[in-house]
User: What shape does this take?
Amino acid sequence: MREPDFYHVLHVQSDAPVEIIRTSYRTLMQKLARHPDLGGNTASAALINEAFETLTDPVRRAAYDQMLSSAEALEAESPGEAPASDGSSPQPDGLGVPARVCLFCGEPHVDRQSRMPDAHCACCGSPLCSAPTAARSTASRRGFHRTLQVIHVTCEVQGSRGPFDSVTENLSVAGLCLLSPLELAVDQIIRLDCEFCSAVGVVRYAHEASGRSRKWWQAGIEFKTLHLKQTRGGLVSTLA
Assistant: This one.
């Protein structure tokens, strides 16, 4: 019998970063606890936990990916499972959770919304469209060039009490450098809204800003989802 696909179990893509895996895991476990047909059956929870522990450990994930690639290569050499009559793929479990979740609040949404520029979360209003990736940045450096630009930004850290105001030092369609009056920490999920865009991102670095009369924190934010408000005559057309 083929081993379960942990990426399917957690409803994430095979290249999903740890923060997305963690958010999807929390959503699945919450959904599982509310499901009326599962009662005291812990089999699904055990599988979800095993998938989470494997995919959030870099060493175990690398070994698992190698095993999965080998299994897929062997399967390609033999007849596969016939598709469902309606053309859909079999569901990995009975929870009925869509393929993706909002990175900020964890609300499930359908996979295609991650490719729709104007898609927003029905629960918290965060953008759902995937932001440009680092791989694309390498191939097209001009399109991701950071511009020195001071813009007022409204921010909210995942799990915090409410929004606060900050300013940018520079920004691009891949991320920004933020000056924050509140201390930020690496790997925090943060939602941002400004005249240029709305986005959900991850704090990649954070340290106290030097040479200022009051304490500010400088943080680098990598966008994970992005909605561009200006597509003409602004930053995007300048950098394209």
User: Anything to note?
Assistant: The domain at 6-97 is CATH 1.10.287.110 (Helix Hairpins). The longest helix spans residues 58-76. The beta strands are 100-101, 108-109, 147-148, 152-157, 164-171, 175-180, 189-193, 197-208, 217-228. The mean pLDDT is 76.
